[in-house]
Amino acid sequence: MRTHNLFTDAEPPHEGERVDTLLSHKNLVVERIVSSSAITPREYVQPQDEWVVLVKGEAVLQVAGQSIALKPGDHLFLPAGVPHTVERTSHGAMWLAVHLYPAQAAASDVTFHPDTPGAYGHR
Q: Which InterPro entries does its entry note (predicted)?
């Protein structure tokens, strides 16, 4: 079994966010998100629960009308259906996002992402 490093190939894009899927297993998806400081705020209302942790950098989210400032190590649970927007991020902010989809929306048993740098998974 190979190990991978979350910080390998983690350069931020010039604008927006870069999302790398690290693991898809049943109804669980784990993503690494690397943000630039030039993002366009967009409201998300998702059918799945999401747990995020800010690994490095800073960010400000708007969650159900409440402004929440995050620093490294801060984590937040976003229940399905709750509107949320990433308002601001520092350049190079890095997140881990864990999405838990409803069981009926489950993906295949395991999807490994070998072309994603640092991808985790089993076959």
A: Cupin_2, RmlC-like_jellyroll, RmlC_Cupin_sf
- Buried residues in 86-120 as b, exposed as e (16+ CB within 10 A): beebbeebbbbbbbebeeeeeeeeeeebeebebbb
List of residues 6+ apart from 44 with CB closer than 8 A: 83, 84, 85
Tell me the per-residue pLDDT of 51-78, one tens digit each, with 9 for 90 and over.
999 999 999 999 999 999 999 999 999 9
Taking residue 10's Cβ as centre, other Cβ atoms within 10 Å add up to 17
Domain residue ranges of the chain, discontinuous segments joined by +? 37-111
pTM for the model stands at 0.81
**Nearest partner of 104 among 21, 31, 47, judged by Cα:** 47
* Residues 37-111, CATH architecture: Sandwich (2.60)
> Using CA atoms, how far apart are residues 59 and 113, in angstroms rounded to an integer?
27
